[in-house]
Batch of 2 targets.
Target 1
Amino acid sequence: MEKTTQLYEGKAKKVFATADENLVIVSYKDDATAFDGLKKGQIMGKGVVNNRMSNYLCQLLEKHGVPTHYVEELNDRETVVKKVSIVPLEVIIRNISAGSFSKKYGVEEGIVFDEPTLEFSYKNDDLHDPLLNQYHALALKLATKEEIETIKAMAFKVNEVLKAYFLSLGVKLVDFKIEFGRLADGTIILADEISPDTCRFWDAETNEKLDKDRFRRDLGGVEDAYKEMMKRVFGE
Ligand code: ADP
Ligand code: UDP
C-alpha cells in the first residue's frame, strides 16, 4: 500500500490518499502543539511512540469488540487506516480530575471519580473546540441521536478496556480524548489516535506524569515520558 496525494496536514499527523478509496495512510509527526495551537514545539520520537501505541491499543480494543479504523502498520510512523468521515465531536472521558476540569470547576487535580465522566467538544478550530452537550450536537446536526448513543457506549467501553490495561502496566488512565468516524455505509468506528498526546497517564505509584502535560506545563523530561510509556507497553 502506497501514499498518493496528501489530503490533509494537521497539527500532529498528515493524511494521504491511497489507490483504495476506502483507505488512507496516516503519518505521525514529532510536532507538538498545546493551548489551542499557541504553544508549538517538537518532541523527538513522539510520532513513532504515538503511531505504535495507537495501533497496539486499536488492536486491543478490537479484541474487546470495539470497531476501529486500524488496518495495517506500514512502518514506525505510518499506518493504513479505514477512511472515515470524522464526526466533529471530541469525546473526553475522565476517571480522575485534571486539566480543564479542575480549572473550570475549581477543584484540585487527582480526585478519583466514583463513575467516569463524558463530555463533548465541537471539533472546530475556528470556534476553539467549544464544550457542548448532546442536545447541542443534535441541534447542530453533528450526529444523529442513534450515533450519539453508539458513541457514548463505545467511549465508556474504550475506557473500561484501557483503564484496566494501563493499570496492569502500573499506569493510571486519568482522562483521554477520542474521535469517531463514519464508514461509507454509516457504521460508526473509533478513529484518530490514542497516545500520550491524547491521554493523561500517571504512574500508579508516584503519580509522575507520563504524557503531554510535561510539554504543556514545561515540566522537562518530555521525551523520556513518551519513551517510558513505550517501554511500559512494548517492554522496550
Ligand atoms: P488536527 O486536525 O487536530 O490538527 P491531526 O494532526 O491529528 O489533528 O490530524 C489528523 C486528522 O485526521 C484529524 O483531523 C483527524 O480527525 C483525522 N482522521 C483521523 N483518523 C481518520 C480516518 N480514519 N479517516 C479520515 N480522517 C481521519
Ligand atoms: N485532549 C486532546 N485534545 C484536545 C483536548 C484535550 O487530546 O484538543 C485530551 C487531553 O490530552 C486530556 C483530555 O483530553 O487527556 C482532557 O483534556 P482537558 O479537557 O483537561 O484539556 P486541557 O488540559 O488539554 O486543556
Note: Residues 90, 92, 98-101, 129, 175-177, 198-200, 212 surround uridine-5'-diphosphate (ligand 2) (CB under 6 Å).
Target 2
Amino acid sequence: MVIEELENILLEVTKKLGYDTDSMRVILSNRPDLCDYQCDAVFKLAKTLHKNPIEIGEELVNEVNALPNFQEYFEKVEFVKPGFINMTLSSNFINKNLIEMNDDAHFHLKKPEKIETIVLDYGGPNVAKPLHVGHMRTAIVGESIKRILNFAGHKTIADVHLGDYGLQIGQVIYGVQKENIAISDITIQDLDRIYPAMSALCKENEEVKEECAEITKKLQDGDLTYHDMWKKICEVSSEDILGIYKYLDVSFDLWLGESDAYPYIPKVEKMLKEKKLLQSSEGAMIVDVSKETDKKEVPPLVFQKSNGAYLYATTDLATIVNRMEDYNPDRILYVTDSRQSLHFEQVFRASDLAGIAPYSIFEHLGYGTVNGNDGKPYKTRSGDSPKLQYLFDQAKEILISKKDGNSEMSEEDIDKIVNAILKFADLQNNRERDYIFDIAKFSEVVGKTGPYILYTYLRIAKIIQNVDIDNHKLSNNIYNNYDRDLRLKLLEFPLAFKNALEYRMPSYIADYVYDICVLTNAFYQNNHVSGLEDMDKKKDWVYLLTLTNKMIKEMLSLLVIKIPTVM
Ligand code: ARG
C-alpha cells in the first residue's frame, strides 16, 4: 500500500537521524496542485524534541533526497513552511503499484491482522406485513457491508432475523379464521388483504385487539392449531420476501426468526436470575440497565410482560445466546433504522450484565429515513407508505420512458439498471443520514448516479474490447495529467476501502467509484485511445483502462450492483 511504503521511508529516515517516533503519518495531499501525498508529523516531532519544526523538517527532507533509491519512489520531496513534507511520486513507483494491484484479485489489499467471524443481522422483514422502503435500506446496506467484510477477508454469517412471532401474526390468524380460509389455501393475496384490514380494525376495536393479542400469546405458548396456521403464513410470506431479495440480489446464510429464539429464553432467564438482574415491576419482569454515567435516561429492559408474554428485547437476548452457542462470533452487527438505537443499547447492556456476550462485540449500524420532497417519510401518490414493488416499478417506468420504446434492452438488463438506480442512490449517502427519494434525479446518466457509473463502465468496455494486451507489461511512462490523475486515484483504493470497512459505510466505496468514473471520463475524452498508432502507448492505456474497469466492477459488486450488457 502506497501510504505505508511512504510512511516506512520517512520512519527509516527519522530513526537514522536518531529521532525516535512512530507518529510518521502520511496522508493524501490537501493540495493536489502541489503534491500527491503529504506528511505533517513534523510539528509533533518538533514538539516532543523541543526543536524548531522548520529545522527538523528540512533535515528530514534533505535526508530523504539523499537516499540512494530516491528516484525509485519520488519525483520530488519538499519541505514547505511551517511544517509540511510534500511528496510527488515517481512514475516508476506509481506504475509498480498499479501492476501489483492488477496482479491481485484483492488489489493488493492487506489481509486483516485477525480474521473475524462476524454475524450480520439485517433484512428483518416482518412476516405477513408488506415490506416498506426501510426494509430496502437494511437489505441493501446490510448486504453491502457483508460484501465489504468478506472482501477484507473476514468470515460472515448473515441472518435475516424475520419478525415472525409478533402481534401481526395474531391479527392475520384472526382474519383468516373470520374469512374461513382453509390453512392450505392461504395465499399471499390473502395476507396482503388481511393484514392492513386487521391492523386498522385493531386500532378502532379494543376487543378485537385483545383477541388478536390472545391468539399471539397462545401461539407462543405452543397452541397446535395456531402453530399450523402460523407455519403456513410464514411459508407463504417467506416465498414472497425471498422473491424481493432475489430481485435485489441480497442473500442470507440463515433464514431464522424471532420464533427460533424462543427455546433459548429459559437460558436467558436463568442467567439473569443467577446474577440477580431480574426485578419485578408492576407484574412485569425487568432488567435495570442504566448506568450512573448516563447523560440520557436509559429505561429498564422489559424481559416479560405482566401477562407472561415476551417482547422484542427478550427474543433479541435469546438470539444472542443462540448465536454465541452456534458460532461464537467475534462481533455481531445489526443493521436497522436508527430509531431502534435505544432498544439495542438496552439489549447490549443486558447481554453484558448477564454474561451472555460482552458489550464490546456489538455494533448497531443505524440508518436514516427515506423522505419525499416535503422532507417527510416517503409516500406514494395516493398517500400510502410505498411497497417495495412500487419503487421498482417507478424506476422501471422512468427508465423505459427515456428509451422512447426503441430499446434493445432485455428484461434482465432493465432489472440490473433499476437495481443500480435505487442502490447507488441509497448507498452513496452516509447511511446515518436521511435522504430524499427523487427517482428522476437518481435515474439521470449525468451526475452522481448509478446509471452514470454503469455508462462509464460500458463506454470503457467498448474502447478496450478489441485491443489485445495479453502479457503486456505496463511501461514506466505516464503520458499526461489526465493519465496521471487516473493512475493516482486507482492507488487510493486501500484508503477508500479502509474507511468503508472501519466505519461500516458503503458510501466511501460509492464516493470512490464515482471519483474514478469522473477521472475516467476526463481521461478518454482527452486521450483518444482507439485511433492511436503508437502501440506501446496504446497498450499502456488499454492496460490502465482494463484495470480501471476491473476495479469499477468490483466496487459495484461491493455495492450490490450488477452490470448490464447494454443501456
Ligand atoms: N423486524 C424488525 C423491524 O422490522 C427488525 C429486526 C432487526 N433485528 C433484530 N435482531 N432486532 O423493525
Note: The longest strand covers residues 74-80.
